Amino acid sequence: MKKLTTLLFVLVFASSMAFAQSNSASSTANGNNNTSTIDQDGSSNTAEVVQNGSHNEAMINQGTLDDAILSNNDEARINQTGVGNSAELHSRDGYSGSSASVIYEVDQQGNYNSVRARAFNAPAEGDIDQSGSHNSADLTQHTSDDMYAKLSQSGVGNTADIDQVQGANNAHLEATMEGNHNSMDVTQTNGAWQKLVVSVSGSHNAVNGTLGAHDADQFTEIAGVGNDFDFYQGESSDAGISVSGDYNDIDLMQNGAHNSVFATVPWHKDGIVVSGSHNTVDVTQNSNNNTATVDVSGVGNSATVTQN
Hints:
The protein is built from one helix and 28 strands. A hairpin with a 4-residue loop joins strand 22 (about 265) and strand 23 (about 270). About 5% of the residues lie in helices and about 60% in strands. The protein has one domain (about 1-305).
């Protein structure tokens, strides 16, 4: 009996050690049509893929392989240079809302590259940087407070689809778009105290989005020609927007009470400030105790504020 008890202790101890292990993996590929895949379960994992060339594929899965194994404190990085490369990251914190973060970074240089990232349960921190043309970013952060994402795209014809959803309190997104004919769709829902900071420079770019139920603030800078901005905010939210250039179109709807379009700190946006020619601003505020400030200078501009 003593021998059996000792054996049982050894098995439990070995299982605990396997669970607590810190895994580290890296892959480097030079050339074309390469595929790199890293799968990790356990805790405190790190993974990195570096690919130089064209039509390469990189995938990192952390904590997504076995539902019986819990994972947290994971980090993943993918760096790709070339044309037609794809990067995929999938992270799941098995502790379902623990304070341990999932951290991932993607850097792509070139044209026709794509990123698809999915992070669940942990306070995810994502940083995606794409430089070139016709690149795409598809990012989802799901089921956790304190999500953070940073996106930077420069070039022509790039697209971004960003979702921070389900229990996404304190979700924070910073996005920078430089170039022409780019588009971005942002959704921050099922949470409060969300924040969006967007900077757009160039021509004929489009930004569309829906922010959370309440206390969902957004601060935006748009510079260029023919850009389109269309946003919805829940109640008790603030907005600060500055527009410089020509033929830009700004549509903002704030639904509920105690919304404001006015001077905001620390972004120092004085409501909606427009300078240039032939710009259009439409602000709609539904319900009570709302405030809106719009300052327009230039030629042929139009500003409309509707408070219901």
